Inverse folding.
């Protein structure tokens, strides 16, 4: 086995972790693949001479590349909520990240959206959405420390800050990720049970279960941005709302409970890219109103956090 083959075999041992780090940092399949590919190119050029810990060195490379990409993305304001004409949509982006076993010098072949959905689920759709609200430095500090146990002594130099400053960034990000409930814990738990039951029924297309969760006079408002034709929609009555939820059962696959402005709602995020948010009004054990928010300016004004497991 020549040196390049040896390096390739070594890189393959670390590829799954590197891709996991890059995906959580960047939230984009294509960008994550680019960051991992750059790590391979640097390893293949430089080898391992003088490298005491290959895993740490590769993680640092991926972290630094990802940080630069996040900063460039923020500066260009290039991360639209909806794909531009001709640009692959979120599901295609997730599919591009599906293949995980490729030769080091090759870009992944992406054609398995089922596997991509499993990958997104392993991260948590709500988590990916919340990470997008963090600054690049906060995101790097939180992801590397809280998700991959990288010490702050290694994170600080990546950010050109002290370990103590990196710790503060991670702490601030952690507070954003967890959020602050706007209702008592008992009320939050009750609302969560109702919303999770609604999601389960919507995913399976269980019309009767949906009707049982909805108030007879429930009202649903949906922004025009997520409706064919582009006009806002209003549905009144549990039968009409339940029928709409059944029709949206495929979309429900990409939904997950989250804390929305301090209460329990649903975020819909194919491939981890925020598409819309469902805000629920729950009285007793029944849903009395649903607000389907898809307008970009309204989505940017929401405070979204991850619910505790």
């Amino acid at each position: 086995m020549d040196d390049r083959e040896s390096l390739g075999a070594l890189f393959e041992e670390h590829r799954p972790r590197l891709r996991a780090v890059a995906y959580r940092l960047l939230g984009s399949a294509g960008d994550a693949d680019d960051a991992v590919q750059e790590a391979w190119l640097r390893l293949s050029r430089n080898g391992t001479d003088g490298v005491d810990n290959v895993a740490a060195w590769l993680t640092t490379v991926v972290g630094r590349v990802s940080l630069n990409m996040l900063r460039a993305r923020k500066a260009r304001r290039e991360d639209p909520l909806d794909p531009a004409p001709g640009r692959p949509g979120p599901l295609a982006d997730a599919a591009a990240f599906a293949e995980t076993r490729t030769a080091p010098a090759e870009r992944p072949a992406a054609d398995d959206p089922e596997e991509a959905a499993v990958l997104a689920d392993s991260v948590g759709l709500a988590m990916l959405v919340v990470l997008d609200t963090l600054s690049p430095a906060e995101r790097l500090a939180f992801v590397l420390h809280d998700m991959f146990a990288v010490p702050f002594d290694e994170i600080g130099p990546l950010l050109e800050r002290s370990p103590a400053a990196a710790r503060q960034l991670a702490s601030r990000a952690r507070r954003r990720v967890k959020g602050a409930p706007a209702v008592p814990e008992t009320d939050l738990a009750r609302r969560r049970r109702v919303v999770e039951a609604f999601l389960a029924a919507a995913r399976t297309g269980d019309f009767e279960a949906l009707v049982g969760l909805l108030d007879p006079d429930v009202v649903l408002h949906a922004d025009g941005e997520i409706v064919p034709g582009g006009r806002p929609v209003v549905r009144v009555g549990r039968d009409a709302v339940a029928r709409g939820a059944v029709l949206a059962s495929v979309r429900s696959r990409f939904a997950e409970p989250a804390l929305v402005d301090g209460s329990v709602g649903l975020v819909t995020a194919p491939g981890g890219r925020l598409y819309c948010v469902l805000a629920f009004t729950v009285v007793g054990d029944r849903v009395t109103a649903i607000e389907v928010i898809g307008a970009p300016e309204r989505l940017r004004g929401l405070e979204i956090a991850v619910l505790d497991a």
Observations:
- The chain is about 55% helix and 15% strand.
- The chain has two domains: 3-132, 185-305.
